């Protein structure tokens, strides 16, 4: 048992307390308890169907004790990890409202005018989400522009000085040191303060909207670290973009505003209390993600489609309008503030953090003979995207196993920053691609060994922020780049971007992907121009745009939203069809080899993510075979001591308990009466809602729904609630607080049917009953997520407390 260990994960804390206050112990694998079980998902054969779902009974306390004696205190050098594990430490969110008596009474009291007020509040919150997301995007943009500008000016002056008198190695040292020190600060705050702020945050938000509780994902502290981290990453010269993290930032803003309080600051503004539940919060987080995309690319429609395609697992028509409203306000806020900042207040010419510039559709139309060329570019983008994802997969596995200490993660980030600067410097130094400076729009032209009045073309790609480099590749006139320059840049930047994604820094993959694609797309356009003797249609800028779309589509596998984002960011509808064609081809080709980058990272973190449909070959499985047993049930009127003991039992750690009616005359348990959650029981115990045995008629304290909302979302752990010995003998009546109409399925229901019900309704618990309505099992997210389609058919993942 000693080799079963924790791995670094999005929650970031190795000993992070779960929501019930229990420290996540290193427990053994639950599906097959030997070390061999860690070796991967077991292949399902017809003979094994009968054994599925019956978790082995493990004496957890004994195993934990054994682990404590065997495993030394210091962290291991290698953490064993296998992608065919499913983590038990991720909890689900309650996307299904508990329709107990308190809820129904409150809903009946609300009249039509009050419902109108609630609806108006929803629109107000969406407007506030848009405004704040736009302001955060402005802050990031202005700070990055000033700090990066300062860094590039210092390095440029240094290079110009040493080019004349020799000793360019000092310039390289300065550039690498500046990069590494800035990235060190960015990585330190992420690794040691809030590890969930690492990366773009899109996989985490995708999981949250799917119904998985990722610890700390929508906290205020996460937002602060995310914003500071992404500024430092971009200024530090890493191959990253600031657009991806805007989606996470928008989601955190939405989660905070919609609750009308901050648990981090311990401030409750006593507004929007009606929205303090997972269902409402989820809808606002969808709006925040869309507002983030809108602010990043100036694409409000693209933001809505991104939230629909990549993010939200639940959608309705009213939500579409509110999300569109939040996106529209977000891009307008950003546009207004940046226009004032740039000194042209009435111009409104900065709709997003990145503006691809206008493409002149008259000069750059496309003809029918170019359609096969676009399809071919899509194929190339799909293959390169699949290669990027496969390399990043192995790199991430290596990081999980070996680079799990925060200090090592910071060192790796500094190493990547220094290597990026060194590669850039060496490429610029070795390049002899000189272009006339007159008429060019280069921000920091480096002369180096070029003649007077000329600049080094390689420097426009490396010696700049990635956003500016993308725009240069799209719009620089033909002849601005040597094919050799573009080829070398593509090769180097591809590997740098692949190495950078997954570092412990806040960073997105959108812009690096666009930059790689724009480089090889422009190279493709130059080659076509040579082949067709300089035909007018073979414009390098147009092919740079198609290459960028192909590369990004090949990596993240978005189609619908990416088409609209590219159209809105270029302000050109003419290229709608070619972009769509390129993206569809890239997705089909990429999916043939390996899955998209975000889905891959979700899988690597062993998250119980539920896809849209159950595995296609799972009809032979029934609810009886996938459910968890035995189930801990409570009686409608239960002894307080029993409830406390059940909640304190760390070996089970259940979050939902079926309520049954016990017949006092017989030992037989009667049918299901309802379902009550751990969080509800904790609130009842905290407020001491119980009566003495002798005096059943005693009037107990009347709880309101507000008491439950005030405790949301961080319910106190059971260990913090003191129950005296006398109180343990009291009784607690659950009738008023339990959900009297929980969803149930018969034990003969097929897995796809159970999956559809669970997934569509956003359930956390699905009770399995027999033909007498007696509880026989419980289906939770992990029971369904552990079946997936592998290369050789249906396979079952092992469950582990990792």
From TrEMBL:
Keywords assigned by UniProt, alphabetized: CBS domain, Chloride, Ion transport, Membrane, Repeat, Transmembrane, Transmembrane helix, Transport
Coiled-coil regions listed in the entry: none
Topology in the lipid bilayer: Multi-pass membrane protein
Gly residues biased stretches: 33-42
SUPFAM superfamilies: CBS-domain pair, Clc chloride channel
Subcellular location per the Swiss-Prot or TrEMBL entry: Membrane
Transferase is among the record's keywords: no
Residues covered by region (Disordered): 1-43
One GO term describing the cellular component: lysosomal membrane
Transmembrane feature ranges: 123-144, 172-193, 223-241, 284-307, 319-341, 371-395, 484-503, 509-531, 543-567, 573-594
Span of domain CBS: 738-796
GO molecular function: chloride channel activity; chloride:proton antiporter activity
Keyword Repressor among record annotations: no
Highest taxon listed in the record's lineage: Eukaryota
Xref: InterPro entries: CBS_dom, CBS_dom_sf, CIC-7, Cl-channel/antiporter, Cl-channel_core, ClC
Stated family: Belongs to the chloride channel (TC 2.A.49) family.
Stated name of the protein: Chloride channel protein
